[in-house]
Amino acid sequence: MVSGRRGDSRGMDLSKPLATGLAVSRTLFGASYLLRPQQARSNWIGRAARKPGAQVMIRSQGVRDVALGAGALAAVARGDGTELRRWMIGHTVADLADLVVTWAARDDLPTRRARLAMGVAAVSTIVGGVAAATARPSGRTSAHAGA
Fold first, then answer.
1. Is residue 143 part of a domain?
2. Would you say residue 139 lies in a domain?
3. Is residue 64 domain-resident?
């Protein structure tokens, strides 16, 4: 909410809806890769997803995404803006890494799938970055802060 008081520049907190949407999406996506790694064939890496070694890496990415999503959702539920910022930075770094490594391998991936994956990673990087930048400190102290 925007306050009418002079000097109060608080605007709408974008971090919570952005983080919630990104975290739910990431958790579902990660769970699907964890349970059905061959699904990466149709939406990212093509036939390589059938190989056992690729399925190990796909499942590992699935676990990463479930953990990132669950952590961010927990931070939203607790209303802890500082923790949420940390989780959103993690999301942003992971998505940027996905974008960069897909771009680097784009000539060896199915063209349409690589473009789609890069587009999704780019949008997710932006959403996570905006959520991190707009997350408001909660004023709570962490148990690790020595308090």
1. no
2. no
3. yes
